[in-house]
Amino acid sequence: MESVSTPTQTLPDTGTRPETTDQTGDDSPKMFHYVRKAKIAESAVLGTHVVALCGEVFPVTRAPKPGSPVCPECKRIYDGLPPGGDDD
């Protein structure tokens, strides 16, 4: 049986975080979306789908780098949210 290594990452302590929806098979992400941080690890480990603030549904496949393009609808919604913690 062949062993499969999965990369790990440290998740920042924020309420939401941008993630990609690159569904084209292209290696470079087209746009990142804001999703609940509690769902990011679950999606990365179990392969479940997450729902972005804008309603986009996708599995977490990669983390954004500084300066990555962010979905304008997710950003608009996120900027309108009241400050607070991520309770779920």
TrEMBL record:
InterPro entries, per database record: DUF3039
Chain intervals for the UniProt region annotation (Disordered): 1-29, 62-88
Pfam families named in the record: DUF3039
Domain of life: Bacteria
Stretches with biased composition (Polar residues): 1-23
Name by which UniProt lists this protein: DUF3039 domain-containing protein
Organism: Goodfellowiella coeruleoviolacea
